[in-house]
Amino acid sequence: MSLALSLGRRGQGRTWPNPAVGCVIVKDGRIVGRGWTQPGGRPHAETEALAQAGSAAAGADVYVSLEPCAHHGETPPCAQALIDAKVARVIIAVPDIDPRVGGKGSRMLSDAGIAVEVGMLEEETLYDNAGFFTRLAHDRPFVTLKLASSFDGRIATATGESKWITGPGARRFVHAMRARHDAVIVGGGTARKDDPSLTVRDLGIERQPVRVVVSRRLDLPLISTLARTAKETPVILCHGRDADPTLMQTWRDLGADLLTCEASNGQLDARDVMRQLAEHGLTRVFCEGGSALAASLIEAGLVDDLVGFTAGLTIGAEGLPSVGALGLSHLEIAPRFALQETHRLGNDVVHVWRSVPR
Prior knowledge:
Elements: H1 2-9, E1 22-27, E2 30-36, H2 45-53, E3 61-66, H3 78-84, E4 89-94, H4 104-111, E5 115-118, H5 122-128, H6 130-138, E6 142-149, E7 154-156, H7 168-179, E8 183-187, H8 188-194, E9 210-214, H9 225-229, E10 235-239, H10 245-254, E11 257-260, E12 263-264, E13 267-268, H11 270-279, E14 284-287, H12 291-299, E15 305-310, E16 320-321, E17 337-345, E18 348-355
Parallel strand pairs: 3-4, 4-5, 6-14, 6-15, 8-9, 8-14, 9-10, 10-11
Antiparallel strand pairs: 1-2, 1-3, 7-16, 12-13, 15-18, 17-18
Helix pairs in contact: 3-4
């Protein structure tokens, strides 16, 4: 099952709105088939593994990280494909909570006389596909917030200079993280100041994440990198109801998708932004700032993973903080995260934290 999970991770950021599933077929102690969900969400992992195994699948054990689908979509159900292949046993890491599956796949297999076991490496599997489950259960994607800052928590000097706080090793690591998410999201201020491309570079990645910008008034440069490349790599703009209709049409003509989101206190509501991104099919979102967007996500309890890149320099109190105002008066109500791992990248330190339920 560990191998199945490893294979499934190859699809992260490429399979939305479908989960990134891995499958391994074993017969007589030998692996005869391996597969993972392909870009765009199909073919599914099971059919990929069965195609590789061929006739050797008969009488084999199948390890799959998510319950095989039982419904007819663009492809026939994987449960039926396993039945037709005459496998002997199917070991499933976790059940699928999609109402179209929800135990039906396991029942189909059992009714066909195939032994079914459920529950292996559950914690790891639930985390790997947290975006898929979060979208179905909570109507939002899984959110990773990345903060690259100085030792004293600043992301830019008082004049706005920010390139580069961290070194090339950290920046390459960030590109790898982008590749494992469906979308990269930034606030309008970051888009205006940095003119980012928000793409994965220098890793041989062809399928790019969706670029998302949160800007209530759509007051974004029309000669920016995002505007010039919107027809090549998807761009989603989350805006308010008071956005200029002319700007909205201009961005549509440039190739961007627009999502009208609710606003409160002069800012777009972070929960509604994430809800609409989930409706768009996104399951894993990677936030790269700025400080106002980071604060709104943290305040709304929407940050699942917090990834910090800390550099060995200090900027001082006049610099721009990595997280905007949260309005906290007591430590007991401050959002908490649990440390998962930490390691060195050149002269920088990366530390990964997971949200602690309040």
